[in-house]
């Protein structure tokens, strides 16, 4: 299993997990009809990947790039679950970076990022302002 | 109870003094039994915690569900609002475009109403409008305001001999000569047909006369290329000064009178209306 992906829809974000290169990406709006059934396979694939990583002697760093423009409470819970999985991997020795990207004028997403970052001890949680000219 | 059993094994009086070979074992048993009771307390405590946790977590699930519902409604309302804002913006843009179009149209209409298409000088109506303003200014500065009435000489002959296109060409040429011959701030207009009108604000009569004479000379000297040769024309000019607050028509009529005199005196000349000169 080298990749796991889901196309972006109106109510669910793009999931693009490139496990081979250890780059994970989640982008868009998230308020799926059924958050558990949407995020279930996401958790499962990440857990399987992290289990493989934990067997490595010198695991290479993992990067999760997030660019959320909107998410509901269930999705927030799902994101926190993902963060905890990565935090656990980081505690066990895998370097993990999470980039929380947000538009410069999106104060809400900035504050959510700051909030999520507070829970991270072993993961490096980076707040990244998106360049206004790029999008 | 079990210590009673032990006591029965030994001497009764000695046992009462509290000595027992198995005191240690007794204490261990008592401690173990005490711990069993403690275990019950701990297990009850853990059970209470689990129950509380379950209730708390169920409440969280319920709250998240409620929150999701409300967020969905808000999100949809937001989307409708954004769509409406976008519609409004488009309407607004369209409105602005329409306003601009109308302003352009109005500007164009005003231009059409103020500029004589053939000769490029002002229309009669616009000259009269501008002159009214100049007349009000005259009340303040008190310097002269001069009216020139001009008429192309023998224009009908040119039309008859060379056709209307030639006539139009000369009218256009004269319009250009007139505009070029006047100063900035002077007002030039076509009064109708081959008749022109100019108004010179803040001008003394003799200055106006020399401007008129120069225009007369320039018109006379001008050659307008026509087919293999060229056309030429002369102009007669009547001059009059506007007197204070009198109706403009009166000054125009005096300039007209002077023009009539210029025509009678042989055309191609400037005549200034002077009370003495008209008897």
UniProtKB/TrEMBL annotation, chain A:
What InterPro entries would the database entry show?
A: SiaC (IPR018530)
| Source species | Thiorhodococcus drewsii AZ1
Task: Show where the SiaC family regulatory phosphoprotein domain sits.
Answer: 7-128
Q: What is this protein called?
A: SiaC family regulatory phosphoprotein domain-containing protein
TrEMBL record, chain B:
Instruction: Name the coenzymes or cofactors required.
Output: Mg(2+)
Give the matching Pfam families.
Answer: GGDEF (PF00990)
GO terms for cellular component? plasma membrane
Q: Where is the GGDEF domain?
A: 143-275
Enzyme kind, highest EC tier: transferase
Catalytic activity, EC: 2.7.7.65
**Which InterPro entries did the record assign?**
Diguanylate_Cyclase, GGDEF_dom, Nucleotide_cyclase, Rev_trsase/Diguanyl_cyclase
Annotated GO molecular function terms are: diguanylate cyclase activity
> In the UniProt record, does the keyword Coiled coil occur?
yes
Q: Which GO terms describe its biological process?
A: cell adhesion involved in single-species biofilm formation; negative regulation of bacterial-type flagellum-dependent cell motility
This protein's UniProt keywords = Coiled coil
- Where are the annotated coiled coils located? 74-108
Cited Gene3D superfamilies: 3.30.70.270
Question: Is Aminoacyl-tRNA synthetase included in the keywords of this UniProt record?
Answer: no
What is the reaction catalyzed?
A: 2 GTP = 3',3'-c-di-GMP + 2 diphosphate
Source domain of life is Bacteria
Mind telling me what this protein is named? diguanylate cyclase
Organism name: Thiorhodococcus drewsii AZ1
Q: What does UniProt list as this organism's lineage?
A: Bacteria, Pseudomonadati, Pseudomonadota, Gammaproteobacteria, Chromatiales
């Amino acid at each position: 299993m080298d990749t796991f992906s889901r196309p972006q829809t109106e109510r669910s974000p793009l999931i693009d997990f490139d496990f081979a290169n250890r780059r994970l990406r989640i982008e868009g709006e998230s308020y799926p009809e059924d958050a558990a059934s949407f995020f279930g396979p996401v958790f499962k694939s990440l857990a399987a990947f992290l289990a493989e990583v934990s067997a490595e002697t010198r695991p290479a760093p993992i990067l999760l790039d997030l660019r959320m423009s909107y998410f509901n409470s269930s999705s927030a819970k799902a994101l926190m679950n993902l963060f905890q999985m990565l935090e656990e991997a980081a505690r066990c020795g895998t370097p993990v970076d999470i980039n929380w990207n947000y538009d410069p004028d999106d104060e809400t997403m900035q504050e959510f990022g700051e909030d999520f970052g507070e829970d991270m001890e072993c993961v490096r949680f980076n707040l990244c302002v998106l360049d206004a000219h790029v999008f | 109870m079990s210590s009673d059993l032990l006591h029965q094994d030994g001497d009764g009086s000695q046992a009462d003094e509290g000595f027992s070979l198995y005191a240690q074992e007794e204490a261990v048993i008592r401690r173990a039994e005490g711990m069993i009771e403690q275990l019950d307390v701990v297990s009850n405590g853990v059970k209470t915690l689990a129950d509380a946790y379950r209730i708390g977590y169920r409440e969280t699930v319920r709250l998240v569900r409620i929150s999701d519902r409300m967020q969905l409604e808000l999100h949809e309302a937001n989307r409708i609002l954004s769509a409406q804002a976008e519609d409004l913006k488009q309407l607004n843009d369209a409105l602005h475009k329409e306003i601009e179009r109308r302003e352009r149209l109005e500007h164009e209409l005003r231009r059409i109403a103020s500029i004589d298409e053939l000769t490029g000088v002002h229309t009669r109506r616009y000259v009269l409008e501008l002159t009214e303003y100049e007349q009000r200014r005259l009340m303040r500065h008190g310097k002269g305001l001069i009216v020139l009435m001009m008429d192309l000489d023998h224009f009908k002959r040119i039309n008859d001999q060379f056709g209307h296109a030639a006539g139009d060409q000369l009218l256009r040429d004269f319009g250009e000569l007139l505009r070029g011959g006047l100063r900035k701030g002077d007002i030039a207009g076509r009064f109708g047909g081959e008749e022109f009108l100019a108004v010179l604000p803040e001008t003394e009569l003799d200055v106006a006369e020399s401007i008129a004479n120069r225009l007369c000379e320039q018109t006379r000297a001008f050659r307008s290329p026509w087919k293999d040769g060229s056309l030429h024309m002369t102009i007669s000019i009547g001059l009059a000064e506007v007197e204070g607050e009198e109706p403009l028509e009166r000054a125009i009529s005096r300039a007209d009178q002077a023009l009539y005199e210029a025509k009678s005196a042989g055309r191609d000349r400037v005549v200034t209306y002077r009370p003495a000169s008209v008897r």
